[in-house]
């Protein structure tokens, strides 16, 4: 990106081609967010004409150069916008919220200030306030994570579908696009979904898909199966199964003549793509082809 694109963009002087290049740059989204936020700020009133008149009166008519008012006003606008960007950058960078995110085919481990542990599955994110953690053990989750919660005050996990509350226990939460599942491995878990509370003891699970609560597989072992490199499903629409396949192998799946609402019960390997595709396609009478990071799944003739 040209170094002067920001100033020209702020003053609406970019050509169509320059604007296209600027809006495609990595920096544009951040600049736009900061400019939007800066529009909510108010600055003290400043009379430019009066200031110039006072300055000229103090200096007298010395014949010095006087900046034209319209140029000075443009300079003030650009300078104010740049200053706002700088101030807001400091604000956003110093925000108390901490976010940890995993990409596709990636896992992550987080140790919270109270020594609670979180293991994130692929394509997941948590956000929490480290500064206020001792006062409120609360975080937001997008995706899937396994929690080992240190004993103490209430620990709360908020998702788009529901809220999970515990004191000290081990549990797994998954929330993805209408899919909400909570599995308790130790202790007691309280699940709030659509205003109703459900208590889960060790070995219990709660599952809601597209707003409907359905029976869930009881968790076995001491950790969820995805931590053992396997993804497991019970009566789950095929679209969610293929979404998980994409996350675990960082690839793109397309389908042809496939009913994505058909229910799938089974599991697949998170480390062997061919084996995973066989595990998904065989029970559903499907075939597949692999080409680099592209997978096509289609119905048999």
Write up this protein.
The relative contact order is 0.07. Helix 3 (27-38) packs across helix 5 (69-93). It is flat and about 85 Å long. It is built from seven helices and 18 strands. Mean pLDDT is 83; it is low at 62-72 and 86-94. The protein has 301 residues and is α+β, with helices and mostly antiparallel strands. The strands form three sheets. Strands 1, 2, 3, 4, 5, 6, 7, 8, 9, 10, 11, 12 and 13 form a 13-stranded mixed beta sheet that branches. A three-stranded mixed beta sheet has the order 15-18-17, covered by helices on one side. A two-stranded antiparallel sheet has the order 14-16.
How much of the sequence lies in strands comes to: 35-45%
Which overall shape is indicated by the principal axes computed on the Cα atoms?
flat
Number of strands: 18
Alpha-beta classification: alpha+beta
Q: What characterizes the major β-sheet?
A: 13 strands, mixed
List the helices and strands and how they pair.
Elements: H1 5-10, H2 16-23, H3 27-38, H4 48-59, H5 69-93, E1 97-101, E2 108-111, E3 117-120, E4 125-129, E5 137-148, E6 155-158, E7 162-166, E8 170-176, E9 179-186, E10 188-193, E11 196-201, E12 205-209, E13 212-214, E14 230-237, H6 238-249, E15 252-256, E16 263-269, H7 273-281, E17 286-291, E18 294-299
Parallel strand pairs: 5-6, 15-18
Antiparallel strand pairs: 1-4, 2-3, 3-5, 4-5, 5-8, 6-7, 7-10, 8-9, 9-12, 10-11, 12-13, 14-16, 17-18
């Amino acid at each position: 990106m040209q170094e002067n694109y920001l100033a020209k963009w702020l003053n609406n002087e970019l050509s169509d081609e320059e604007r296209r290049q600027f809006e495609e740059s990595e920096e544009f989204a951040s600049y736009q967010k900061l400019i939007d936020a800066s529009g909510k700020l108010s600055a003290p009133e400043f009379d430019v004409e009066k200031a110039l008149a006072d300055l000229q009166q103090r200096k007298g008519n010395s014949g010095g150069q006087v900046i034209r008012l319209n140029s000075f006003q443009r300079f003030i606008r650009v300078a104010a916008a740049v200053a706002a960007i700088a101030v807001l950058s400091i604000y956003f960078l110093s925000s108390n919220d901490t976010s940890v995110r995993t990409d596709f085919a990636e896992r992550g481990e987080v140790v919270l200030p109270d020594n609670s542990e979180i293991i994130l599955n692929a394509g997941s994110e948590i956000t929490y306030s480290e500064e206020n953690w001792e006062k409120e053990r609360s975080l937001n989750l997008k995706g899937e994570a396994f929690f080992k919660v240190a004993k103490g005050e209430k620990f709360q996990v908020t998702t788009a579908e529901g809220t999970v509350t515990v004191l000290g226990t081990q549990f797994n939460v998954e929330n993805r696009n209408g899919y909400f599942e909570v599995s308790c491995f130790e202790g007691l878990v309280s699940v709030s979904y659509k205003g109703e509370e459900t208590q889960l003891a060790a070995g219990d699970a709660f599952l809601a898909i597209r707003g409907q609560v359905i029976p869930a597989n009881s968790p076995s072992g001491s950790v969820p199966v995805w931590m053992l490199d396997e993804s497991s499903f019970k009566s789950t629409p095929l679209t969610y199964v293929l979404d998980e396949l994409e996350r675990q192998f960082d690839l793109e799946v397309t389908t042809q003549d496939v009913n994505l609402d058909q229910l799938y019960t089974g599991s697949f390997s998170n480390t062997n793509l061919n084996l995973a595709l066989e595990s998904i396609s065989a029970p559903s009478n499907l075939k597949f082809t692999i080409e680099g990071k592209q997978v096509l799944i289609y119905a048999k003739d």
